[in-house]
Amino acid sequence: MASLSLKNICKVYPNGFEAVKDFSLEVEDKEFIIFVGPSGCGKSTTLRMIAGLEEISSGELYIDGKLVNDVEPKDRDIAMVFQNYALYPHMTVFDNMAFGLKLRKVPKDEIKRKVEEAAKILDLEKLLDRKPKALSGGQRQRVAMGRAIVRNPKVFLMDEPLSNLDAKLRVQMRSEISALHHRLGATIIYVTHDQTEAMTLGTRIVVLKDGVIMQVDSPQKLYNEPDNLFVAGFIGSPQMNFVDAKCNIEGEKVSLTFDNTTVVLPPAKAKKLIEGNYNGKTVVMGVRPEDIDDSQITIETFKDSIIETDVTGYELLGSEVLLYFEAAGVQMTAKVDSRTPARLGDHIKLAIDPEKVHVFDKETELTIT
Ligand code: ATP
Hints:
- There is one protein chain.
- Helix content is 27%, strand content 34%.
- A hairpin with a 3-residue loop joins strand 16 and strand 17.
- The chain has helices spanning 43-51, 93-103, 108-121, 137-149, 167-184, 195-201, 219-224, 229-234, 267-275, 296-301, and strands at residues 4-12, 18-27, 32-36, 58-63, 66-67, 78-81, 155-159, 187-192, 204-209, 212-217, 241-250, 253-258, 261-264, 282-287, 292-293, 306-316, 320-327, 330-337, 347-352, 358-361.
- The protein is α+β, with helices and mostly antiparallel strands.
- It folds into 2 domains: 4-234, Rossmann fold (3-Layer(aba) Sandwich), CATH 3.40.50.300; 241-361, CATH 2.40.50.140.
- Helix 2 crosses helix 3.
- Bound molecules: adenosine-5'-triphosphate.
- Adenosine-5'-triphosphate is lined by residues 13, 15, 17, 19, 37, 39-45, 193.
- Keywords: ATP-binding, Nucleotide-binding, Transport.
């Protein structure tokens, strides 16, 4: 049971590099928080400050209301799981899991009970006598989790715990971690740069860029209502298409134009552009590949917002196809039904759903609507 409070936390490394800037976050008990962002954005640094492995340059960190800036890592009641597992090769699975408890002089029978309990949760019961080298990657990862579980910590910190596993195992471990979260009712902070992991595991996601929080929200909210261009481009795969478009306002009617395409915005979106005085200005229009379609019915439904273009790339994903094309000088992607007749080199029509269009200010890169 633990809540965390990070107040205006900064990290300046001895060489003067500011890796984390004014980081504030309230984590509630039992939350599964994900830190996500491109390489070098400060995810691990923040996690290591929470663990006490890295000094906090300024700001305050509270665990369950207690200021812990100067509390030793071992006294923070936190367990960390790393991407390289950090198992002791000469010890059995049992001893690896028991190690931390032995150091804390926990009685032997209690250690046995706790290790067996964790082994049961993680399906490691039959492997307790093995050494790490006789385990698969996924099993090693589970031992690393087990070592954290036996300590019954207030908070679990996980730094890219699945990044060394192959794609299939990663998917399996992902659902195991999710189940574990429910089962333990633990507070987890999890670092990843894999946005599928972020979207499927997190109750809330913290998107970071250059040491600054860009947005904190539920996966769904980040996807549907990104606060800015960066979050819009980072969340979602393939990424959102962006194109510069001219805003025309005539009375209540607001349209965005690029090349020969005109997208007439629905009233709620139009209102935001009218209020912001965007008439005649260039804005950035964003539309996700899944919101551009080549089916006859969509083309008829959204007959005002059509792109006519050539297919420059065709990628079959299974039930869907990615069509690559160019519009207003930028490479764009549409994700359409795999039954599409469109093929490489074809001249096609694509329709944009105006309800799904995002509009960003070109200067500030903040979301207008
Ligand atoms: P990745 O996804 O690549 O692991 P990250 O988001 O976890 O990246 P951090 O490891 O937190 O990033 O690093 C943040 C920034 O701080 C990076 O630019 C990194 O080069 C820098 N950095 C990390 N450790 C130090 C250090 N000891 N001294 C100076 N700069 C450092």
